[in-house]
Design a protein that fits this description.
Blueprint (H helix, E strand, L loop, with lengths): L7 H4 L4 H20 L1 H9 L3 H10 L3 H13 L7 H25 L1 E4 L8 E4 L2 E3 L4 E3 L2 E3 L2 H27 L5
Antiparallel strand pairs: 1-2, 2-5, 3-4
Helix pairs in contact: 2-6, 2-7, 3-4, 3-5, 3-7, 5-6, 6-7
């Protein structure tokens, strides 16, 4: 009697579950930290948390929210202290850096080698160059990748703490 084909779980290398857990943790940490931008928007715009929440939810991308925070902090008539604005711009830059790794793993396909080789992440975007296109760029998911994900989680925790500190230090709506 022929054997049934393996299920997706049976085909997946055991270490892949660690990647999935780390990617899930990054998404959780990211969403939680991105929501803290509401406090920065409120303080930088000189409004309350309710209005800042509406603004935050109206902007439907992380990039748009971070751009807004940056632009509010760069205003000549910003109601916050200059040092607060400097700290906001610094924490925003850190978030943008971490978002690259998060986006990399959220917007890719995962390829498994039937022969038991390493799992690969295949980017699902077109990179336009001057004279060529790059499509389907691949990277191997290995121990170094896991270390990068762990470092990103540590950085997200630090960013989260810094946003809370900025909001508290400068009396932004909590």
């Amino acid at each position: 009697m022929p054997k049934d084909p393996p299920t997706p779980t049976e085909m997946r290398p055991p270490d892949f579950d660690q990647f999935l857990m780390q990617i899930g943790r990054i998404n959780y940490a990211w969403t939680n930290t991105e929501s803290l931008l509401i406090h920065l928007i409120a303080g930088l715009a000189g409004t309350d948390k309710g209005v800042a929440t509406i603004i935050h939810l109206t902007l439907n991308t992380t990039r748009a929210r971070l751009d807004l925070v940056d632009r509010l902090a760069k205003r000549d008539d910003c109601p916050c202290a200059p040092k607060a604005c400097e700290r906001v711009l610094a924490v925003s830059a850190r978030m943008k850096k971490v978002s690259g790794l998060r986006n990399h793993f959220n917007h890719c396909l995962y390829a498994f080698d039937e022969g038991g080789g390493p799992v690969r992440a295949i980017q699902m975007r077109i990179a336009d160059r001057k004279t060529s296109l790059r499509i389907g760029e691949e990277s191997v998911l290995d121990r170094a990748t896991l270390a990068d994900l762990e470092a990103a989680l540590v950085e997200m925790q630090a960013i989260n703490a810094e946003i809370w500190a900025i909001a508290k230090d400068y009396g932004m709506p909590l």
